């Protein structure tokens, strides 16, 4: 509170001298000292701001100059004229000799096997042929070291695809270019070779794989590629389950499938927006049916739902207000149906909140050009048939052998599995020459039957050869079973209890009949590994590491000689067992995008989260990309989608 000067003087006259000296007597005048201090502070602040601004501008200018200079230097050293003269090519690479059962050309020497000294050295290495370009094949390539093998990859596509994000590509959340990487670029580290074609036959007696390619005139051209070791990683095809009309369905396994789905979705919305479209036809066009409640089906249904919510009806960006891209009646008429044969499905609660039609415990009976027929059982156990009008059906349930795996399986009499090639715990194809042929991924399944090794297990464990297995011998047998079939480990935890349970006559030993029943029951409990990218990737990395060790410890068997003899096969078996333990799968959980959220399923435990879980899902998939290029493109796609929405172009 301020006082006039005369009030201060009057007050000072009535106080004792010590206190009177403390009373201010300044008048209401401008104090020159505070003014001077404020001006100095303002000037100093202005100078500091100008200095910082100048430094930032200077550093930005320097940064731009440095980046520009780096780009110019890159262009100067990259985009220059290079003359390739007198490239050495072996005549047998241009005119291969013929051989094999069908007297086809045998590509023992490739056109680039002698182009430099490193290529010549690799040509002397054991020949490793990888058939396929998916998760398993890329896992093998990732784990191999340069100089291990003369590597050749055979694939119908020139690129590898990040399949878990195909549902996102199907609605334009990400670009298809962000999900693919050329196989030749991934092979460059190993100085490997690529052949675009498909494997159609395998001659194990001569170590030849028959490849079919398309000639420029459209005709097929077949030839053989020799191998010392071959890895079959061709994936699988969709199982029909005997359902008629699947030619009216889409699948989601390739980039082409994602592009076809996107075109159909956009066509449906465009036709539904026409004034000449009837209400019944509009509802049919905007009805989306997904057959299969696995991760692919769930994520596709969630992506379609998000597409309708965020881009069809309520489109908005940072530069425009919220707008309706399509007529509101289109969003009103949209219906999404998920048909699942089992009771459990990922994301049940959120789908129901979003009014997605979940049809569980149902079986698809048929698919026509405009309807999906499915059956359920009522409370009385009677079968009832239902119909859903639709112009879009996605089939994502079950797997089956593709033609090449069927051919390989037919060549081996002990291959009885109907959906995949059976391999042992070291991923070697059962019945094939030991150590020559491996199979991984969806096209393979690890044996689960213990009875096929019954006599071997008995001979090894029955030390006293009395035809009975006592508890000590049973413990030894359990150890051997875990080594042969690691998946049986979870079912052999209670060793003592199992022994007592099947010792029906309580004589402290298991007869052969009792042991047979015990092993049969354990084998029935073991479940095959799921046909997922996670399994294929782990198998590929495991096999790649093992092949690397084999290349350092084993002498190669020339591919120009006939199949390995019994002694050579024993060496291969010893090598596999000596350098690596059997393959053991570690389940890291199942991830699924469920519409601006994500669900994590770890078997016994599962949880669903919102945006935080969605970004965790994105982080995991971003980290699993095969190259820095696809990581950068994927990040850009997510940013563009968040700012400007999905691309609604029909290409």
TrEMBL record:
Subcellular localization, as worded in the UniProt entry: Mitochondrion inner membrane
Domain EF-hand residues, every copy: 449-484, 490-525
Family matches, as SMART domains: EFh
Membrane topology qualifier: Peripheral membrane protein
Single GO MF descriptor: NADH dehydrogenase activity
Transmembrane intervals: 52-73
InterPro entries, per the entry: EF-hand-dom_pair, EF_Hand_1_Ca_BS, EF_hand_dom, FAD/NAD-bd_sf, FAD/NAD-binding_dom, NDH-2, NDH2-like_C
GO CC annotations, alphabetized: mitochondrial inner membrane
Pfam families from the UniProt entry: EF-hand_7, NDH2_C, Pyr_redox_2
Entry similarity comment: Belongs to the NADH dehydrogenase family.
Protein keywords: Calcium, FAD, Flavoprotein, Membrane, NAD, Oxidoreductase, Transit peptide, Transmembrane, Transmembrane helix
Protein name: EF-hand domain-containing protein
CDD domains: EFh
Keyword Transit peptide: yes
């Amino acid at each position: 509170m301020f006082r006039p000067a005369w009030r201060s003087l009057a007050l000072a006259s009535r106080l004792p001298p010590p206190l009177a000296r403390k009373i201010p007597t300044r008048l209401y005048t401008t104090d020159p000292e505070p003014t001077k201090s404020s001006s100095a502070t303002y000037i100093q602040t202005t100078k500091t701001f100008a200095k910082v601004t100048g430094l930032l501008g200077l550093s930005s200018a320097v940064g731009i100059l440095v980046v520009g200079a780096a780009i110019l230097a890159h262009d100067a050293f990259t985009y220059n004229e290079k003359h390739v003269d007198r490239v050495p090519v072996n005549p047998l690479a241009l005119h291969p000799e013929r051989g094999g059962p069908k007297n086809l050309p045998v590509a023992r020497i490739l056109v680039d096997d002698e182009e430099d000294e490193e290529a010549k050295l690799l040509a002397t290495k054991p020949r490793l042929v990888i058939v396929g370009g998916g998760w398993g094949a890329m896992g093998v390539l990732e784990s191999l070291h340069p100089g291990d093998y003369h590597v050749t990859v055979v694939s119908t596509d020139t690129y590898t695809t990040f399949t878990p994000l195909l549902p996102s590509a199907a609605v334009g959340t990400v670009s298809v270019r962000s999900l693919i990487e050329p196989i030749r670029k991934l092979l460059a580290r190993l100085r490997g070779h690529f052949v675009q074609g498909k494997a159609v036959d395998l001659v194990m007696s001569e170590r030849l794989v028959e490849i079919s390619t398309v000639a420029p005139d459209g005709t097929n051209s077949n030839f053989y590629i020799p191998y010392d070791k071959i890895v079959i990683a061709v994936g699988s095809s969709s199982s029909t389950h005997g359902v008629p009309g699947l030619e009216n369905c889409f699948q989601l396994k390739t980039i082409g499938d994602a592009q076809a789905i996107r075109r159909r979705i956009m066509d449906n919305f465009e036709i539904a927006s026409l004034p000449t479209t009837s209400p019944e036809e509009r509802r049919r066009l905007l009805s989306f049916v997904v057959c299969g409640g696995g991760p692919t089906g769930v994520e596709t249904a969630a992506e379609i739902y998000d597409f309708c919510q965020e881009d069809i009806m309520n489109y908005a960006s940072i530069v425009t207000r919220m707008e309706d891209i399509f007529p509101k009646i289109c969003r009103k008429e949209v219906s999404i149906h998920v048909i699942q044969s089992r009771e459990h499905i990922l994301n049940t609660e959120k789908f129901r909140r979003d009014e997605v039609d979940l049809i569980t415990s149902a079986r698809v009976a048929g698919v026509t050009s405009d309807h999906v027929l499915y059956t359920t059982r009522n409370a009385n156990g009677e079968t009832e048939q239902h119909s859903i009008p639709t112009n879009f059906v996605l089939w994502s349930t079950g797997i089956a052998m593709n033609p090449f795996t069927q051919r390989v399986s037919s060549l081996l009499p002990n291959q009885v599995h109907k959906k995949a090639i059976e391999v042992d715990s070291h991923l070697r194809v059962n019945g094939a020459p030991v150590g020559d042929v491996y199979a991984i991924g969806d096209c393979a399944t690890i044996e689960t039957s213990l009875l096929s090794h019954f006599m071997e297990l008995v001979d090894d464990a029955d030390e006293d050869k009395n035809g009975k297995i006592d508890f000590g011998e049973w413990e030894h047998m359990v150890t051997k079973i875990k080594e042969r079939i690691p998946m049986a480990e979870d079912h052999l935890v209670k060793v003592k209890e199992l022994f007592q349970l099947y010792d029906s006559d309580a004589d402290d030993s298991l007869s052969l009949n009792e042991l047979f029943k015990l092993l049969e029951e354990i084998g029935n409990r073991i479940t095959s590994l799921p046909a997922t990218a996670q399994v294929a990737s782990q198998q590929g990395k495991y096999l790649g590491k093992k092949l690397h060790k084999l290349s350092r410890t084993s002498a190669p068997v020339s591919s120009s000689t006939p199949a390995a003899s019994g002694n050579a096969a024993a060496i291969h078996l010893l090598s596999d067992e000596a350098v690596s333990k059997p393959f053991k799968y570690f389940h890291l959980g199942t991830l699924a995008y469920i519409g601006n959220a994500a669900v994590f399923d770890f078997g016994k435990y599962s949880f669903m989260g919102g945006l935080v879980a969605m970004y965790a899902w994105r982080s995991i998939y971003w980290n699993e990309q095969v190259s820095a290029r696809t990581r950068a493109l994927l990040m850009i796609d997510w940013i563009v989608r968040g700012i400007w929405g999905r691309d609604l172009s029909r290409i």
